[in-house]
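B., you asked whether I could sanity-check this one before it goes into the benchmark set. Here's the sequence:
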Amino acid sequence: MGIVVALAALLGGIVLGERMGPTPASAPLLLGAVLFVSALAWSGRTRLFVAAVALVLLGIATMGRALHGAAHHGVSPGPLDTTGTLATDAEGERFTVEALVRLDAPKRTLVVRARGDDAYRLRVLAAGDRVRLQGDVLPLGRSRFDEYFRWRHAVAVVDGAHVAAATAPSNSVYAAANRFRALAARGTRTLDTERRALLAGFLFGDTRAIPDDVADDYRDAGLSHLLAVSGANVAFMLALIGPLLRRLPLGARSALALLTIVTFAAVTRFEPSVLRASALAAVSVLSALSGRPVARLRALILACIALLLADPFLIHSLGFVLSAGASAGIVLFAGPIATRLRGPAPVRDALAVSLAAQVGVTPILLIAFDSVPLVTPLTNVLAAPAAAALGAFGLPVALASGIVPALGPVLHPVNAVLLWWVTAVAHAGAGVDIDLDRQALAMVVFVGGLATLAARAVRVAQTR
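And here's what the prediction gave me:
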């Protein structure tokens, strides 16, 4: 219960800090840090109270400082000729692409919009690449996507950007990540274009090349989360190096596991859902190293607290919130739901996880979109086994085929069948145009509550 109060206190402080607006916030930051450390000297409810106050102050301070940095960024409107590092891969329409670039000086992030031939030059680059940019700096707010970029720490737009020069990443983690992605991409050449794009989505969350109609089917069927990296992807990556990890002593094993987590986060471009999954995996690794295993809910909340302290803007990331909500739903409800279901254990467990995740994300989806597809639990149950197999089988096959191209035609037909099945489920689910809105959900909860009370009353009467 205490860890839940801690998260609530931090969230309250972040929201309050946003309402207070930009401020250096040195005083609440210092006071919050002192109180947080001093809470260790207390016990019981006093410790919880002091820690909660500290986290409120830290939330106010971190959000205030983040807003202050965005408001006083030091990037002047007008012509720009500077160097920086691509923070994301470029994406967009055929003749217009966008990417985030972290400048060398000042240390700020800009949205780079390129058109025509410059769009082609930018599109072939990857996150981590060093670039020299030329263009005109404009304030945010001219595009409907600028609010999204603002919460990714962008402070201005470089419109009509020209990539004057580009070099490979100077950061070794990004360099390793890009080589890893290139090897996997090379290993999928025997697949057709659509299935190559889908496999990139399943493995790395890279949905840029997926056809719009296919992406729409996944979204309308409630399966778009399969194309975003989750904790399962991180677990599969750690399992891939598991034989090596088991041969190392505990300290070296933990260090290699953490390095793998960071590298895989770079491979998947540090997307918010990736950050949540990676932070949770890191908490688990560190707790094992310390000899004090942490319960799953506590580990999830600790990961969220650490990420929000590092980047309070994550509260505006739908991907992060949905990822945390789904994880919380699985941790809290998958077990109880599974015990109440009947049937074969694999089907029962898959349905329980799907329903639990849906419970966790439904309130968020209703707030964000006013409705959720009613067919989602069924499509997830049908797609889950194939999606899990893709996660476990797809990456090793892609890497092996990248090293030995002759393996591709032999092994990738399995991936092709799995991708066909999930896509067929998505297409069929998208055809079921029945959504659950807020009023319908309230009715379901009301009727479900009445049914539960009636069932309990019957059981009590029978015992008498």
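One thing to flag: The mean pLDDT is 89. Otherwise nothing jumped out at me.
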